[in-house]
Write the structure tokens for this entry.
Amino acid sequence: MRSIKQPGAPVTDRIQWVEARGRAFSFRLEAGVPLLEAARGGFAAEGFAGGVLNFRRGALGPFAYVMPALSKTGENAAFYSDTYRPAGVTHTRLGSMTLGMRDGAPFFHCHGLWTEADGRAGGGHMMPDETVVAEPFAVEAFGLDGAMFVAEPDPETNFKLFGPVAAASSGARTTSRAFALRLRPNQDVAFSLEEFCRAHGIARAKIHGGVGSTIGARFTHGGVTEPFATELAITAGTVASGPSGAPEATLDIALIDYTGGLAEGRLVRGDNPVLMTMELVLEVLS
């Protein structure tokens, strides 16, 4: 399987996880509000301090983003581009967000694909402090109670990355058992989730959120993304019993690579290793 050497030594536990409770809900992001505050307010209205969300068509402006890029210093296996600030209103096609805390304040990690005002198709990593909701749009969220994604220094990748940590209960109404996860580098996304479910007695689960990167990508429709550095959003995902009776993960994703190539489709199980990180929530169905 493909792998990329990281600047730091790998830790033994390849999946960072916290068991929690949660609930799926939807809300609207209101126009004129910074995207970070709009997301935070939507979760807070349901009693949650954080969680994950997915969205389709939306409108953002002002808007700022970065793309994956090669590292110029060698201090990281890959890095980010300079910041892009397209004029006018950018219309999203899809996206996934992790909402948590960084340096004691709300913060998000959000990847998506979009079309800029001049018709250019793009994608990447949205900048929380420079992105504003231009027109109201709906999102599908999953709030966490008992866990929070917190950005902390990660010696393996030499980045400050979101990972789940235990958190005090907020008393929010919940409906489901859930696990907040971060997959570490150089392990297949699907196989890692399947092994986690086997180890925790999970027969069926729904994936919510899903923000991270893979070392290129291999799709079941035959498409291949060769450039190794990507920004990826999971658009739909489940874990369910396969033909053998063991858990199998189905992951539909969208990405942009460091050359600007866009790709969408279902990941091949066993051939899509994590580059830097993969954050998501598993809602346990059975």
